Hints:
- With 381 residues, this protein is of the alpha/beta class.
- It contains 15 helices and 10 strands.
- It has helices at 10-14, 41-46, 66-79, 92-104, 119-127, 139-152, 163-169, 171-180, 195-207, 247-250, 272-282, 291-305, 311-325, 347-353, 365-380, and strands at 36-38, 51-56, 84-88, 107-113, 131-135, 156-157, 186-190, 236-242, 285-289, 334-339.
- Strands 1-2-10-7-8-9 form a 6-stranded mixed sheet, sandwiched between helices.
- α7 crosses α9 and α9 crosses α11 (272-282).
- It binds ligand AN7.
- Ligand AN7 is lined by residues 64, 89-93, 160, 190-196, 263-264, 310, 312-313, 340-341.
- Residues 64, 89-93, 160, 190-196, 263-264, 310, 312-313, 340-341 line the site of ligand AN7.
Amino acid sequence: MSAANRYTGLIDRYRDRLPLPEGARAVSLGEGATPLIRLENLPRRLGLEVEWYVKFEGLNPTGSFKDRGMTVAVSQALAEGRRAVVCASTGNTSASAAAYAARAGMAAFVLIPEGRIALGKLAQAVMHGARVLQIQGNFDQGLRLVRALAEELPLAIVNSINPYRLQGQKTIAFEIVEALGRAPDYHTLPVGNAGNISAHWIGYSESAGIWETGACTHCAGRCLLQGAPLTDRRPVMVGYQARGAAPFLQGAPVAEPETVATAIRIGDPQSWNQAWAAVNESGGWFDALDDEAILAAQRLLAETEGVFCEPASAAAVAGAMRDLERGRIPAGSLLVSTLTGHGLKDPDIALRQTEGRLLSVPAELAAVREAVRAGLEETCA
Ligand code: AN7
């Protein structure tokens, strides 16, 4: 068996478009190359005329899009001779930082809001050997502490205020443009700290041959896409927030963000200007969704398409459903939604929503047959 065609992650795939020093070791777990799944049953069920794909980032090595940024940020930190990374996190960043630090042989310190991160993410951070500091505060407070800490101690911050994170995450747009042969008309995604929408916009812009010289402050332009543009357009960017954590709708930071989608329970987004630029330059918008709408979309996607994303990710689908229904995203559009994380990250929320579906049946054929018959009548009626 030959390993010649083995996929080895997005740094090996896109090194010529990433700002890493020559010869820097790629700290990789094979991230990227996630499936772009066309939705079939869900739009049909809702009577929506749309060519709609989801980019399932939950299938990255640690189950979220953070791995795209982490491979580059940790590789850069290692190249700089750093021995330890630090982050504040609503969960996924901590899981990813812990895994990539383990891979690099570095220490990881993660600050998380005590009791407010999904179980799977906590398990990951602990299993990968990170020092987990549960703070009696939220993500925004955690990030302020991390900034202060890194002033005093030799720690590489791997939150998305580290520009290498966005450079890695821009590759999602490269993959989408390659897969579709063009950029979509619309792109929807959830927005928390706003790094990801900013990274999408960098990636789509570079794919279209449009770049800011200052887009990367570290590589002096080496990361600029060489050669001909891969697409003649950029998508309209649409960012969705949870109603209780919607600073982009308020136009100002929210002091006490609240939502069932703990991944995006963020009130003071750090990539504020870049996210506004993505939305304004693309002719897009921000909007907010109730927790109920987010969870309903999570269930609908899981039930109709077999795709299980975490609640925050479902905001990208819930919002698009609403905007398609009211024509803000026009019929016939080519639409891509980013599913940022895997549903298994947050088993508590999944089970809490589906309690009534669990049947308790005696281990006897008659009882089991009866239960299955009833189910068959319901589903095949
Ligand atoms: C599943 O892990 O901020 O707007 O600390 O985990 O780039 O912040 C997570 C964010 C969307 C929002 N979906 O992305 C963290 C963290 C999921 C997420 C977002 C996050 P950004």
